[in-house]
Design goal:
Elements lengths: L1 H12 L4 E6 L11 E8 L2 H14 L3 E3 L6 E3 L4 E8 L6 E4 L2 E5 L4 H11 L14 H7 L2 E2 L2 E2 L4 E8 L3 E6 L5 E2 L2 E2 L6 E8 L5 H18 L19 H7 L6 E2 L2 E3 L7 E3 L5 H19 L8 E3 L6
Parallel strand pairs: 2-5, 3-5, 4-18
Antiparallel strand pairs: 1-2, 6-7, 7-14, 8-9, 10-11, 10-14, 12-13, 15-16, 16-17
This protein binds flavin-adenine dinucleotide (FAD).
Amino acid sequence: MPLTEALARLKSTIAGDVRAAEPMARHTTYRVGGPAAIHVQLDTVADVTTALAVLGEEGVPWTVVGKGSNLLVSDSGYEGAVLVLGREFKRHTVDDGLLKAGAATVLGVLVQEGFHHGLTGLSWAVGIPGTLGGALAMNAGTRNGSIGETVDTVTLLVPGEGLTLVRGRDVGWAYRTSGLSGRGIILEAVLRVGEGDAVRIRAEMERYLKERKAAQPLGMPSAGSVFVNPEGLSAGRLIESAGCKGMRLGGAQVSQVHANFIVNAGGATARDIVGLIRKVQMTVRDTHGVELRPEIRFLGRFDEA
Ligand SMILES: Cc1cc2nc3c(=O)[nH]c(=O)nc-3n(C[C@H](O)[C@H](O)[C@H](O)COP(=O)(O)OP(=O)(O)OC[C@H]3O[C@@H](n4cnc5c(N)ncnc54)[C@H](O)[C@@H]3O)c2cc1C
């Protein structure tokens, strides 16, 4: 049994928390998702290296998860190991216009740094709930900026290759995805953050946050925008004009506030959410002839939904 073997080996070699059958509903902003067969917190580079070696030798699939704020996990969970970066990857320093941060640092901490010290290049991230690692994998952003624009370098741990330094310009940034996604574990990044006018930066952040609060259903569990905007179009407007706003399936609902958000309106399952995603895709296809592509990532099996 590779999972049982891997679990026992991880428990005896990893300093961080190693759990079996950990409910992923505790680790996603949707608050849904069944158990990860193995859930491991990796606090050091040594632990990351050991975990990847053990999982590789035992043939256990793995994935890395940040705050789970762009993630829908199947109700049946994940038959592999969920890796979460801990202590050593939550540190950050600012020196001479360069912000160096571990991949587990939450974006909010970096935004606060920008707010207090008048750093440029971070304002767009205000109110985005993920980690730096998740933001880099997704090339998180808004119409006011994106993470890829500020990256100087990224350090990855690539299985079989070890620590790899990638220059920002070599990453291959695209709309809500990046060449880092699926390549390995992002451990750290250096962002270029010039010193700007602190008063102007604070005002900008406050304005962006106010806009976000007015336009998004922040009081309900979600994973942000569900679909990427098709070229030159707005997914939210397409969904709204197709009559999907407020559409429900079980506990999942197309938000009344922002049509590109599907919220957990209470007791939703992953099956409800994925079913509603398909219903919206079908309605928009029939009404507008446009295929909506999900922005959120899926973990586990959804074929039974
Ligand atoms: C209310 C709300 C508002 C949002 N607004 C925005 C927005 O304006 N713009 C935007 O772009 N997004 C937005 N999001 C989505 C989400 O917050 C971002 O995509 C965020 O960057 C994801 O980070 P995470 O740590 O939660 O990643 P997760 O959801 O945990 O993971 C997302 C992907 O990144 C990968 N990943 C995570 N960490 C690592 C790592 N260390 N190494 C390699 N891969 C990794 C995962 O495997 C997965 O494929 C919003 C979400 C919510 C709930």
